[in-house]
User: Which sequence fits this backbone?
């Protein structure tokens, strides 16, 4: 698992429009909030993505680009985004590269069967590429506002 103060792992992933996004492009320009979530169009994931979208202007005022990541395919992201009016960028990590780098691809037991999935987690990366906030196993409800408060504290 990653820790505050470490350099954030870099990656290139496609977004909902199949445009490749290199996380390094924000280096020196913008803080980045990465929120990893299990699946598009599930109740908790929808709540989290729409909450981040609802506060996107506030995050931008604090020079933060908000990016959601799951293992869903680009087309599924586009459908999810369009259906719920999600404005934050959604990246497809279908191979699980970023999920493994950030330590969010974890095994859990469901009905006696061990399965892997994304542990809902959020990371705030500063303009120098350093992890400033590391949150594993978060609750979707109210999470975007918690992250916004943390960003405001970091900027004060």
Assistant:
């Amino acid at each position: 698992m990653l820790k505050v103060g470490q350099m954030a792992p870099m990656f290139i992933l496609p977004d909902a429009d199949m445009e490749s996004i290199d996380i390094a492009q924000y280096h020196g320009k913008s803080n980045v909030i990465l929120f990893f979530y299990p699946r598009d169009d599930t109740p908790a994931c929808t709540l989290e993505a729409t909450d981040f979208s609802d506060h996107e202007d506030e995050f931008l005022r604090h020079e933060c680009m908000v990016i959601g990541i799951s293992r869903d395919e680009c087309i599924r992201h586009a459908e999810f985004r369009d259906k719920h009016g999600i404005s934050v960028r959604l990246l497809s990590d279908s191979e699980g590269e970023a999920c493994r780098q950030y330590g969010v691809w974890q095994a859990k037991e469901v009905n006696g069967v061990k399965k892997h999935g994304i542990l809902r987690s959020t990371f705030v990366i500063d303009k120098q590429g350093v992890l400033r906030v590391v949150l594993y196993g978060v609750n979707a409800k109210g999470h975007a506002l918690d992250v916004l408060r943390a960003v405001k504290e970091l900027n004060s």
